[in-house]
Amino acid sequence: MLILKKFAQDKSAVIGFAIVVAVVFIAVFGPWLAPYPQDATMSHLTRRLRPPSWAFPFGTDNLGRDILSRVILGARGALKVSLLVVGASMAIGVPLGLAAGYSRGWLSEAIMRVTDVFLALPQLILALALAQLMGPSLESAMIALVATYWPFFTRIVYAETRRLRASLFVDALEGLGASPTRIVFLHILPNAASPIIVRATIGLGFTILVAATLGFLGMGATPPDPDWGLAISQSRTFLPGAWWYATFPGLAILVTVLGFNLLGDGLRDIMDPRLRRSR
Amino acid sequence: MLRFIARRTLLAVPSLLGLLIITFVMIRLVPADPAAALAGDNATPEQVAQIRAQYGLDQPLPVQFLKYLSDVARFDFGDSVYSSRPVAIDIVQRLPATLELTFAALFLATALGIPLGVVAALNHNRWPDFVLRIVSIGGVALATFWIAIMFQLLFAMKLDWLPLRGRSSVGISFAGGPTGFLMLDALLKGRLDVFWDAFRHLVLPALTLSLGGIATITRFTRAGVLDTMQKDFVTYERAVGYPHRRLVWVYVLRNSVVASVTQIGLLFGSLIAGAVVVESIFDWPGLGSYTVNAILTADFKVMLAVTLLVGVIYAAVNILTDIVHGLIDPRLRDQA
User: Which residues contact A28 (CB under 8 A, 6 or more apart)?
Assistant: First the structure.
């Protein structure tokens, strides 16, 4: 309850939470919310590149599709990709971090050296290269993103596990004869949950950004998917005339990522008392 | 200090070896058949077999890896399919443009980020702090490719204040100079017109690239200054009556920027990666646009060389960051 109260006092975290809830709502009910849900695939060449109006608040694109509808329908894809990527990265990165943090000697060293090498590479370039090697598609992009994102979780979980391993309650558990698996998953993991949750929240926003960049560069979603990054890429031929075509999908990305970042930032302040002082 | 530098440099060796292994695995094992991938879509089975023999892809993996190491050691990355010239030469020619852009963005990010961070900290929980907080969280939420297009739309297409793309105007004849940095070369040869033209071309890409960095540095400087302001020595110096300005901008700042320096170091790496997107939108003739072209045309040799190069730059920057840390805070020298 104390946490909820603290959270409610943090205005920017509440704004972030509201944005995230709204985006999830739009992603789930998109086909019912969009004014022209059929515009996900259907084109109407008679109403190409119309500026924003009451009938089309965000205007129409080069195939006459309602941009507002496509921005709404794009939320589902963006959220799905980021949830899958962050989920899979956690599934790989967290156990590795626990293993590296709890064990000593070569296993720990091996895991952390590999992690460091991955962290020392630019995520975008690595993801682009991997996506191309596997053949450009949304699936390749997602695998590439997972392959480059798991080390972030390993690093954090490793640091937390190392810290907790030295604490008295772990000594006590070891003395009582608890198995390493039990200690790691039932006792260390719950205590390391806060930084993982914070990282995952910010990671969701970050992944939407990188996935949109891959889509923009032609290494992610494929036409006629209502993808935000892809839409911005397609809009470039029609500038400066159709300014609305590039503007609104980009705003959708900005607001969504901002929501996740504000929320993650607020969560960090609440969950990590060591950082609270600097607010 | 020298020992510290030497030890820190040696620590990078395992990471570099790891980098070589990862790139090798990527290029040899990820595609189902690397020879077919190298040969392209229209190759006959005979051509594929020839390429397999030519690149030693029929040899055992350890032998292939050793050959790979010796190629890398001699900077021999083969010819680019796209430009049909040696990859190493392409890279050397394009690197200065990318460095010019990256340094400009890094300068903007530091020159704006540190003062903004100090201002935010001094106005803790008042309106400048709130505004800067939202701006700095917004700054990292911006899609670079989108803001680049928005800048082009507004400042180049609608207002016509700045050039839309490229590194210099079409009509300008300038042979270039010894450094490869266009603005510097123009100054060295006394060509102010070229300098001004290059500067105008640099503004939009550098600004786009720096936005995320401004946001990050502002945040870390703010946190650092807030922390330091609570230290005893600040209370003491205040009580003794040091001038406020000197206290904040000299003593507090020096004690606060360690975290920011780390961020500036990390930032350099992320700027090089961000340059991939920015360069391809602004047609900036550097490594970034070269990389995007290579990836889109499946030019594997270029992809490999660029990934390696960026990895090495990352490692070098990390070492440099640690050394700067050691200079700012002598206590760190003994720990590493």
Answer: A76
Letter for the amino acid at A54? W
**How far does the CA of residue A117 sit from the closest CA of chain B (Å)?**
5
On the 0-12 / 13-18 / 19+ scale of CB atoms within 10 A, B240 is exposed
Q: What is the pLDDT of residues B296-310, one digit of tens each?
A: 777 777 888 888 888
Q: Closest CB to A217: pick one of B27, B133, B292.
A: B292
Looking at the complex, report in whole angstroms how far the Cα of residue A183 sits from the nearest Cα belonging to chain B: 31
What is d(CA B31, CA A135) in angstroms, rounded to the nearest whole number? Answer: 8
Name the residue among B273, B300, B318 with its Cβ closest to that of A124: B273
B216 vs B129: CA distance, rounded Å: 15
| ipTM for the predicted complex | 0.86
Label residues B99-128 b or e (16+ Cβ within 10 Å = b).
bbbbebbbebbbebbbebbbbbbbeeeeee
Residue B13 lies in a domain: no
Cβ neighbours of residue B68 closer than 8 Å, sequence gap 6 or more: B20, B24
- Structural domains of chain A in order of their starting residue, each with its CATH number: 9-24+64-272 (1.10.3720.10)
Find the angle CA(B128)-CA(B134)-CA(B140) to the nearest 5 degrees.
130
Flag whether B305 is in a domain. yes
> pLDDT (tens digit, 9 = 90+) per residue, B120-176?
888 887 888 888 888 888 888 888 899 999 999 888 888 888 888 888 777 777 777
| Token couple for A196 | 């993982």
- Establish if B318 touches chain A: CB-CB under 8 angstroms: yes
| CB-based contact, B15 to chain A, within 8 Å | yes
In 3-state terms, what secondary structure has residue B297? coil
Contact B151, B209 (CB under 8 A): no
Do A240 and B37 make contact, defined as CB atoms within 8 angstroms? no
Residue contacts between A and B (CB atoms, under 8 Å): 137
DSSP 8-state secondary structure symbol assigned to residue A60: B
Separation between Cα atoms, residue A22 and residue A15, nearest integer Å: 11
Give the residue numbers spanning the domain of B241. Answer: 87-335
Nearest C-alpha neighbor of A211 from the set A11, A76, A31: A76
Q: How many domains does one find in chain B?
A: 1
- Residues 152-191 of chain B with CB under 8 A from chain A are 152-153, 157-158
- For A182, other C-beta atoms within 10 Å of its C-beta total 12
| Residues 6+ away with beta carbon under 8 Å from A254 | B138, B141, B142, B143, B146
For B94, residues 6+ apart whose C-beta sits below 8 A from its C-beta are B285, B286, B287, B290
CB atoms within 10 A of CB A160: 21
B298, two tokens: 């499946």
Residue type, B45: P
Q: What is the pTM of this model?
A: 0.84
Q: Is B86 helix (H, G, I), strand (E, B) or coil?
A: strand
User: What's the CATH code of the domain at B184?
Assistant: 1.10.3720.10
pLDDT in tens, A41-82: 777 788 777 888 888 888 888 888 888 888 898 899 899 999
Please answer whether residues A274 and B223 qualify as being in contact, where contact means their C-beta atoms are separated by less than 8 angstroms. no
